[in-house]
Design a protein that fits this description.
With about 250 residues, the chain is α/β, with parallel strands linked by helices. It has helices at about 50-60, 80-90, 105-115, 120-135, 150-165, 180-200, 210, 235-245, and strands at about 10-20, 25-35, 40-45, 65-70, 75, 90-95, 170-175, 200-205, 215-220, 225-230.
């Protein structure tokens, strides 16, 4: 039986940013990992660890300074901005901490937005958007505006929008950061359901171990390097020890 290749493969990825005073600041160092189809992975690390930079590269929002990144077998390391935009639209659904909904457009319009960029005709856009709103339990709110919804409902709209393009990968950036604990847990349980029932690959960025525990695997980044990559440990102490081991 032929082994299925990973959908994400980073190999020795480094990232540097120019400094105003001259020179470069390196924020990622030889980051190497793969993600298989159907995994639920948490990329975790403290503020300033480099996890957000890693997320931007995985999400084709930025490019590596060196190393390679293959997404579904395509090397996207040196693609142009326009090519990366196409990759994002075809392969990735995004869910952000602050929802990123258009406040003056209805919920239905917000969910339809990525379908417009795919060139779907209006009837197909409406049908698909309504299917996704039904999936997240908001089919009765399609004429509402984001300001009329609770935080948890806004995040469910964001999930519906992410799913509208039928992506095989969802990238969630601190998806519960703007929610209370009850709503946050509901959203995390929903991600778990999408992963288990629909086989959608999920990569979730977080700085909280309690959030990362909803995933099946943790990639822990510290000072721009991966210090742990494996099953979710029983205690956060395992990750803290990995950080201390890196300091040595």
């Amino acid at each position: 039986m032929k082994k299925e290749p990973p959908i994400i493969a980073l190999n020795k990825v480094c990232k540097s940013f120019p400094l105003a005073i001259g020179g470069q600041q390196q924020v990622l160092f030889d980051v190497t990992f793969t993600v298989k189809s159907g995994e639920f992975v948490a990329i975790m690390g403290p503020s300033g660890s480099g996890k957000s930079t890693c997320m931007n590269i995985v999400g084709a929002l930025d490019s590596a300074t060196s190393g390679t990144y293959e997404l579904y077998g395509k090397d996207i390391t040196t693609m142009t901005d326009d090519e990366l935009a196409t990759i994002r639209n075809e392969y990735i659904g995004f869910v952000f901490q602050n929802f990123n909904l258009l406040p003056k457009r209805t919920i239905l319009d917000n969910v339809m937005l990525p379908l417009m960029y795919r060139g779907l005709v209006m009837d197909d856009r409406i049908r698909r958007a309504r299917e996704m709103l039904r999936l997240v339990g908001l089919e009765k709110f399609e004429t509402y505006f984001p300001t009329q919804l609770s935080g948890g409902m806004k995040q469910r709209v964001a999930i519906a929008r992410a799913l509208a393009g039928n992506p095989k990968l969802i990238l969630a950036d601190e998806p519960t950061g703007a929610l209370d604990s009850k709503m946050g847990n509901e959203i995390l349980h929903f991600f778990k359901k999408l992963n288990k029932d629909m086989g959608i690959t999920i990569i979730m960025i977080t700085h909280e171990f309690e959030i990362a525990k909803y995933a099946d695997r943790v990639i822990h980044i510290y000072d721009g390097r991966i210090v742990y990559d494996g099953p979710v440990p029983a205690s956060e102490n395992t990750l803290l020890k990995a950080e201390k081991g890196h300091k040595k």
